[in-house]
Specification:
By secondary structure, the chain is an alpha/beta fold. It is about 40% helix and about 15% strand. The chain has a 9-stranded mixed beta sheet with strand order 6-11-13-12-14-15-16-17-18, with helices on both faces. A hairpin with a 2-residue loop joins strand 9 and strand 10.
Length: about 625
C-alpha cells in the first residue's frame, strides 16, 4: 500500500508546469538578451538546443559559436535563418564582452547587420515587430562602439576576424561638413547625460558619434560656428548581400559617415534605412568640455574679457543655411551661453523649427554699460549678415528674432527702438553738440545713446527683463559691485573725455554708475529713460514674465525682478509663467511660448503650416501660463 502511494505521488509531479509572473518579470523574460546581462535570449537558447550546443557553449563557447556558424553555412535549419543570424550576433557579443576582443565585437556587429539585412528583399527581412529587431540594432550600435574605439576610427581599414578578413572602404568626402573637416569622433552610446531636462535621440541603425569641426584659417576671429560645438554624426557600415558575406571568409563593406543635418536616412535598394543619432548627448559633451562656468563671473567683473578678440562674441550652433531665419539668444547678468542649453535642446528637437530657424548665441561682458554691450551686439550681427552675403543673398537674414533674458532683454531692446535724443536727454543735462569731444568719441556716443531700429530684426522676445529696473540693484549693491568691475579701455576713455568736457558730469560718469548693475537700478536715469521708449511699431514684441507665485499681481516677483518692472504695454503678447524663478529659460512653459512665437513666424513667412495645437494659447495656459492683455494687437 505504501508503494502505491509513492507511485501516485510521483505521477502527480508533472515535468511541465506553468508559473504566473508579475508584469515586470513577464516583460523581462520576453525581452532578455545579451544586451542587459551575461545570458542570451530565449530564441538563442532554442537555436543552441536544436543544434545540441547548449552544453558546449557552457564549456567551450568558441567551439559552440564555430559549430553554429558551420551549421548555418550548411543550411541546417535553413527555415530559421533569421534566428540563427541573431544567435550568432548575440553569442559573438557575449563572447566579445568576456574576452574584451574588438574583432569579436566587429563580428557581432556584422552578424547583427546580416540579421537585419536591409539590402534583402522585404520578404527576407525580419519582422519589425519582433523584439529582436530593435535588439539587433542595439547590438550593431554597441558592438561597433567597442570595435572602433574612442575616438572612433573612421578611415578605411582592414580587419583580421576570427572567421576571416574584412575590408572597409571610407569616403574622405564624408568628413566634409559645410566646408569644415570633422575630427575627433567620440562615441555617445555609453554616455549618460545629466543637467539637461530632456534627452533626444533619433532611433535607427548605426553608431552615434559626436565630432568636432576643424576651423579653417582666418575663421578664428569672425562669426562662425563654435570650434567646441560637437556635431551629431552617425557611422554606418553596410555590406552588400550581407547574409552571404558574413558566412564567407572574406568580407568587404563601406564605412559611411553622415552628419544629422546633412541627411536623416540612407537608401539601400529603394529601402529606407533610418540612421541613429544622439543630438542631446553631443550637445552635452560640448557643454561639459568647453563651457567654463567660472567665466560667467569673470566676464561680469572683467569688462575687457572679450576685447582681445580671442573669444567669440557671436557664435552659431550650426552653419548658416539659406532660408533659415536666425534666432539670436542674449543671456543676462553673470551668465553664459550654456544657460540656453535646455531651450535650444528642446527647440531643435522639432523638425519645423530646424527647417526654418537657426540659433546664434551672443556673449558679452555683463558688467559693462548696457549701451556699450548693445553696440557690440549690433555690430556683431551686422558683421555676420555681411559675411553671409547680406539680405540680398538670403532674405531670411532679414528676419532676425532676438531673445533676451534679463539684462540681455535690455540689450535686445536697444536694437528695436528709435531713441532719437530721449536717452541722452534723460541722462545728460548738456546737449551732445555742446560738448567739446574728439570725433571718434562723439561718434561712439551717438551710436550708443541714439540707437535706431536695426532693420533686419523683426521680432524681439523679452524674458525676465527688468524693463523698469531690478530691486536687487540698489544703490549700495551697485556701488559695491560697480567698483569691482574693470571697464573696457574704450569706455574709460569716453568717460574721461566727458568729464574733461564738463566737470559737472563727474558724478554721473563715475565708473560704478555707468556699469550695468546701476544701469538696471530703478533709480538709474538710464533705465528710467529707456523704459519710456516703446519698441518700434514695425517690430513684433513679446514678453515672458516668470513669477514665483500663482500669477501676475502688484506684489509678484521672480526673485530678482518684480512683475510690475517686467510688464510693459508695448508688446504683442505677454505670458506670465507661474511658479517660476528668474532663470526661466529651462521652464517648459517658457519654451512652449518661444516655440509658439516661432511657429507663428513660420506661418507668416512661408507656405508651411505648423501643427495648429502648438500655436494654441489655451494649451500653454493649461500647462501653467497666463496671458495678460497688452496695448498692441494680440499675437
Amino acid at each position: 500500500m505504501s508503494g502505491l502511494a509513492v507511485l501516485m505521488a510521483l505521477s502527480a509531479c508533472s515535468p511541465i508546469s506553468v508559473h504566473r509572473l508579475s508584469l515586470v518579470d513577464a516583460y523581462r523574460e520576453r525581452t532578455r538578451s545579451a544586451l542587459e546581462a551575461d545570458h542570451f535570449s530565449a530564441s538563442t537558447h532554442t537555436v543552441l538546443q536544436r543544434q545540441n550546443l547548449l552544453s558546449v557553449w557552457k564549456k567551450q563557447p568558441e567551439q559552440a559559436l564555430a559549430s553554429l556558424r558551420t551549421a548555418t553555412q550548411a543550411g541546417f535549419y535553413t527555415s530559421d535563418l533569421s534566428s540563427q543570424m541573431f544567435a550568432l550576433a548575440e553569442l559573438s557579443y557575449l563572447l566579445a564582452r568576456r574576452r574584451h576582443d574588438p574583432a569579436q565585437f566587429m563580428m557581432a556587429a556584422l552578424y547583427a547587420y546580416a540579421y537585419l539585412s536591409p539590402d534583402a528583399p522585404e520578404g527576407e527581412r525580419p519582422n519589425p515587430y519582433d523584439v529582436h529587431f530593435r535588439q539587433a540594432c542595439d547590438l550593431y550600435m554597441l558592438a561597433l562602439t567597442e570595435a572602433l574605439g574612442s575616438p572612433a576610427r573612421v578611415n578605411s581599414q582592414v580587419w583580421t576576424l576570427p572567421v576571416g578578413r574584412l575590408e572597409l572602404q571610407a569616403n574622405p568626402d564624408d568628413l566634409n561638413w559645410h566646408g569644415h573637416t570633422l575630427t575627433d569622433f567620440r562615441p555617445t552610446a555609453r554616455f549618460e547625460v545629466s543637467g539637461l531636462n530632456n534627452i533626444y535621440s533619433t532611433s535607427g541603425l548605426g553608431e552615434p558619434l559626436a565630432a568636432i569641426p576643424r576651423m579653417n584659417p582666418g575663421e578664428t576671429h569672425s562669426f562662425q560656428i563654435s570650434d567646441k560645438m560637437r556635431v551629431p554624426v552617425s557611422l554606418f557600415i553596410e555590406l552588400d548581400h550581407s547574409r552571404e558575406q558574413v558566412l564567407s571568409d572574406h568580407m568587404s563593406g563601406r564605412l559611411i559617415l553622415t552628419a544629422n543635418d546633412n541627411a536623416t536616412e540612407r537608401r539601400e535598394d529603394s529601402h529606407q534605412v533610418a540612421l541613429q543619432y544622439d543630438p542631446t548627448t553631443a550637445r552635452a559633451i560640448s557643454l561639459s568640455e568647453s563651457v567654463d562656468w567660472s567665466a560667467e563671473y569673470a566676464s561680469f567683473l572683467n569688462g575687457r574679457y572679450f576685447d582681445d578678440h580671442k573669444r567669440l562674441q557671436l557664435a552659431a550652433i550650426e552653419p548658416h543655411k539659406k532660408g533659415r531665419m536666425p534666432v539670436v539668444l542674449v543671456y543676462g547678468t553673470a551668465s553664459s551661453a550654456g544657460r540656453w542649453a535646455n531651450m535650444v535642446n528642446d527647440l531643435l528637437a522639432d523638425p519645423e523649427i530646424r527647417k526654418h530657424f537657426e540659433f546664434w548665441v551672443f556673449s558679452y561682458g555683463t558688467g559693462n554699460p548696457i549701451p556699450y554691450s548693445a553696440i557690440q551686439l549690433r555690430q556683431s550681427l551686422q558683421e555676420a549678415i555681411h559675411n553671409l552675403g547680406g539680405v540680398q543673398a538670403d532674405p531670411a537674414l532679414g528676419h532676425i528674432t532676438l531673445i533676451g533674458h534679463s539684462q540681455g532683454g535690455l540689450l535686445s531692446k536697444m536694437l528695436v527702438i528709435n531713441a532719437e535724443n530721449h536717452l541722452w536727454d534723460g541722462m545728460v543735462s548738456v546737449p551732445l553738440d555742446h560738448l567739446n569731444l574728439a570725433p571718434e568719441t562723439r561718434s561712439l556716443l551717438k551710436e550708443a545713446l541714439f540707437p535706431s531700429v536695426m532693420p533686419e530684426v523683426k521680432t524681439v522676445v523679452f524674458i525676465s527683463t527688468p524693463q523698469h529696473g531690478s530691486y536687487l540693484a540698489t544703490l549700495s549693491v551697485s556701488r559695491f559691485l560697480g567698483r569691482m568691475i574693470t571697464l573696457p579701455f574704450t569706455v574709460t576713455h569716453v568717460l574721461n573725455q566727458l568729464i574733461q568736457a564738463d566737470d559737472a558730469l563727474r558724478l554721473d560718469m563715475s565708473p560704478w554708475r555707468v556699469a550695468s548693475v546701476y544701469g538696471m537700478s530703478p533709480q538709474s536715469s538710464f533705465i528710467q529713460s529707456l523704459s519710456a521708449i516703446e519698441v518700434a511699431p514695425e517690430v513684433e514684441a513679446h514678453s515672458i514674465i516668470p513669477v514665483t507665485g500663482n500669477g501676475p499681481s502688484s506684489t509678484a516677483s521672480d526673485g530678482v525682478v518684480d512683475y510690475e518692472s517686467a510688464h510693459v504695454p508695448y508688446v504683442n503678447s505677454e505670458l506670465v509663467v507661474k511658479h517660476s524663478e528668474h532663470s526661466t529659460q529651462s521652464n517648459p512653459v517658457t519654451i512652449a511660448e518661444v516655440r509658439r512665437i516661432l511657429f507663428q513666424q513660420i506661418l507668416e513667412t512661408s507656405s508651411d503650416a505648423p501643427p495648429s495645437g502648438d500655436m494654441t494659447k489655451k494649451n500653454i495656459v493649461r500647462i501653467g501660463g497666463e496671458y495678460v492683455s497688452t496695448g498692441r494687437s494680440w499675437k
